[in-house]
Amino acid sequence: MAETLLPVMLRVAGKKCVVVGGGEVAAQKVKQLLECGASIVVVSPNLCSDLAELAEQKRIQWLPMKYEPSILDGAFLAFACTDDMEVNQQVSADCEARKIWCNVVDVPELCNFYMPSILRRGDFIIAISTSGNSPALARKVRMFLEGLIGDEFGVLVALLGEMKEEMRKVLKTVEQRRKFIEKVWTSDIWKYLQEGDLDSARIYLHRCLAEAVQNERG
């Protein structure tokens, strides 16, 4: 029976994240980490052009050397992205010994977490995973969803964030909040979100909230 994975969203802002390798795959991981505000250390004798530019801009710390276990000291997570399987295996073993999250690219059995294919619309995030079986399929699904999930979803999340405290004050239970979101989902707010009319969208949100409160009071 295949193992069941636990999907999570990690806060890595300001945390040391180590990327072992200096090629295009390593650059992809570094860019994802940069989006999340991580403090990134790249370990590799050489860097591809993208990573070299980031190092020159001081956006990453580059250690121009071969991998050594001590580089992991204080790390929150690590990626092993080299084309040397012996090095990748060593990174995985060293991370396991230190209780550090580790991803070895394209070697699921050496990972204790997988990187999903990510669709971002502001704070609205969809992560697609095939549990390491086919990253290419996960990417294909993400590209399909990109055509269905527009920026309006991210805008709606931002607006809901603005009134989060107000919602919690008047809608005390999870069930009440669920009903409120159902009302929002079927309202005319989407038209205003797509048109970029935030004022009207806010009015609709507050109208939906007032109706939800009224319904709860009977």
What CATH calls the topology of the largest domain is Rossmann fold
Helix content: 40-55%
Q: In whole angstroms, how far apart are the ends?
A: 49 Å
Kindly state the number of beta strands.
7
**Could you tell me the strand content as a percent range?**
5-15%
Shape: elongated
Q: Please write the CATH class name of the largest domain.
A: Alpha Beta
Assign the CATH architecture of the largest domain: 3-Layer(aba) Sandwich
SS-based class? alpha/beta
Low-confidence runs (pLDDT<50, min 5 residues)? none
User: What sequence of helices (H) and strands (E) makes up the elements?
Assistant: EHEHEEHEEEHHHHHH
Number of domains: 2
Strand order of the largest sheet: 3-2-1-4-5
Instruction: Average the pLDDT over all residues and give the rounded result.
Output: 94
Classified in CATH, the superfamily of the largest domain is: NAD(P)-binding Rossmann-like Domain
